[in-house]
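Why Amidase family protein? Reviewers of the renewal asked for a concrete example.
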Amino acid sequence: MSQTSASEAAEWAVPPLPADIVPRRIAYAPEEGLSRSFSGAVAAFRAGTDTPTAFLERCLTAMVQHEPSVRAFVRHDLAAARAAAAAATLRWAAGTPLSPIDGMPVAIKDMIETADFPTEMNSPIYQGWHSRRDAAAVLALRQAGAVVLGKTVTTEFAVGNSGPTRNPYDTARTPGGSSSGSAAAVGAGMVSLALGTQTQASTIRPAGYCGAWGFKPSHDALNTGGVTPLALSQDHLGIIAASRADAWAGAMAIAAGVGGNAPHPGLQGPVEAPAPRRPEVLVRLDMQGWAETPPDSRAAFESALARIATAGVRILDRHADTEVAALEAELADANDYSYDILAWEARWPLRTYVAGHGTAMVGGRIQHLLRHAAAMDAAAYERALNRRAELRVKVEALRARADGFLALSSSGPAIRDHAFTGSRSYPLPWTMVAAPAFSMPLLASEELPLGLQLCGFREHDASLCAIAGWIEDLLTAPESQEI
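Here is what the prediction returned.
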């Protein structure tokens, strides 16, 4: 069953938006986005011309300006955030910051436990529920000096009904899901980094929709302890950030503090983002999403590829390369076998919510998943796993010939919808590949953000980050200027 089927979408009924949401539309240009990079201010912290306290206040000013329209947060504690920023300010003044992210304003997706806030997962079942502990990633961020503003809106259990969050550039459009509030908060400049999750598309797609950087590391490279599980073989902790440098520094702070999921030692690489590196060969992937992609978005992607090729990078595609064609063939029905894996593995915890609280307490998307799982058997799940294994083999076959893969992050800009958070056709393949992917906010379509997705090979996250830096430098430079 396709994850965009009419029968499924028809069940995604949600309550109407609050009447006091302020409608707006802001034209997006990649070089003039609303996001606010913390790493870009670090030199001024060292020089004493700026402080984490002043930086936080700029973020809070953005919150006052944008939150009435965006509704990214479930709850926050601004007094605690100001106190944490003041402590970071003293450390930078003394020349003893705890890490490159000491004082960075961050937000936490409301699927992830926090000691100081409830974790409610956009579900009435968990209203007011409080674990009284920090998830591993939250603990690591705090120990690195990050300033936690609060919890951000998620779709129900990261898979079901949407919350009230709107796209920061057009309130008639979705911010994407399931990391809706995290992407919107970063995209609107309210925080520099927010934690998300990705089991299918939940970091890469909303980051692309909201004009933010998204980083889905190799599977298990970041510790998911304290993150409510959904489908364990595909659950990732994701990073949504205002810049490549913010994303990498935040991810490395988590890896340094709590590692990965055992026995993975954790994300490897330098503490700060690696220097940009020009790739030799990149693979263009159209995936299932190309057929869904409108002409303006196709043109933006083609233009980016042309600039990359002109800069001396060889581009392989399915039309002229048999291995790429074989990979594209494996991706032709990726939505279907990914959905089978999701449905089978998500039986727990989703079944227990229905068993303990009744069908009426969960949304239509979750009910659909459970019905899909009930129609499967272990053999169907094994067939889906075999298809995923074949996909991974075909990706690995290109390791000796290519440095990475390029695709869009989504099938066009954010859709004009609220209940449906958009197609997963572009992001979900690399969730199944379990290798790293970046959504880079370097394109625009219809005056809205359009993410360019850079995918890599498993455990080569730092190398992919370096390539992302080169692509960013190239695509943000004047076309007459060569990199």
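The longest helix spans residues 52-70. This is the kind of structural detail the renewal will allow us to pursue systematically.
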